[in-house]
Design brief:
binds magnesium ion, single chain, 32% helix, alpha/beta, 6 helices, binds guanosine-5'-diphosphate
């Protein structure tokens, strides 16, 4: 058993973008390893993590890229976006500014990425409902206007994390298959 010699039908590169501290690395840790840390450090070294899953009887290797402290505007290099077929634009529902910055992250993404890239807007930390600074409707409206998928998640409570990644990966699969 195991995945030795497993035949991979597709490799999908998906990039995580958004302001620092919105929870990108913890979303990835939750999805790839079902882990979460409250004392998450800035990502060092590791550029991406992979998870192999099955969609429509095909073996898909999701290669999810995480920024390593390059969240300052325009610090993310074009190599990061190269070959990406999906992107998750992440903000923190308790930090209005992180949502207000989504427009320029999107602009930067569209400037670098393939025009057919599948994009999902993610409002993370939905467990912090009492501190909410971004109404769900505001994000929904932005997502509709910009043609993005949208979901609210909590990496801490594992809410919608699997679902968000599966949605974007399935949509990518549908566009390439
Ligand atoms: P990044 O800079 O975007 O990669 O953010 P991190 O993943 O490093 O997370 C920043 C901080 O937010 C860390 O202290 C995390 O533990 C915390 N965090 C991440 N996701 C959540 C979440 O869903 N809920 C809560 N309450 N905290 C979170
Ligand atoms: Mg990080």
């Amino acid at each position: 058993g195991g995945d030795f010699n497993q035949k991979i039908d597709y490799v999908f590169k998906v990039v995580l973008i958004g302001d620092s501290a919105v929870g990108k690395s913890q979303l990835l840790a939750r999805f790839a390893r079902n882990e979460f840390s409250l004392e998450s450090k800035a990502t060092i070294g590791v550029e991406f993590q992979t998870k192999t899953l099955v969609i429509d009887h095909k073996t898909v290797k999701a290669q999810i890229w995480d920024t390593a402290g390059q969240e300052r505007y325009r610090a993310v290099t074009s190599a990061y976006y190269r070959g990406a077929v999906g992107a998750m634009l992440v903000y923190d529902i308790s930090k209005r500014q992180s949502f207000d910055h989504m427009a320029r992250w999107l602009e930067e993404l569209r400037g670098h990425a393939d025009k057919n890239i599948i994009i999902m807007l993610i409002g993370n930390k939905c467990d912090l409902g009492t501190l909410r600074a971004v109404p769900t409707e505001d994000a929904q409206e932005f997502a509709e206007r910009e043609n993005l998928y949208f979901m609210e998640t909590s990496a801490l409570e594992a809410t919608n994390v699997e679902s968000a990644f599966m949605t974007i990966l399935t949509e990518i699969y549908r566009t390439v298959s």
